[in-house]
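Marked as duplicate of an earlier ticket. Keeping the data here for the record.
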Amino acid sequence: MTQPLTFEAFRDHLAEQLELGGRPLEPQHRLADDLELDSVQRLEALVAVEELGVELADDCAGPEQTLGGLHELYVREAGGPSARA
């Protein structure tokens, strides 16, 4: 099994897929309030996670979810230790 991505690599993957470049993306940023992702974009974030080989439930990308929280769910589902280096 492949090691889960670090937070930084995970963040960069989502930023590229969601076209979020040019702004700082921190673990504590909430998907809706801080990153200003609407409901469709939050589902697109889940699709980006699926591209990494992990399927998460739709409710995992609620408006209050943080980028770091989404990464932790990804790591847990990928079966690896926390990779928040």
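See parent ticket for discussion. The chain has one domain: 7-78.
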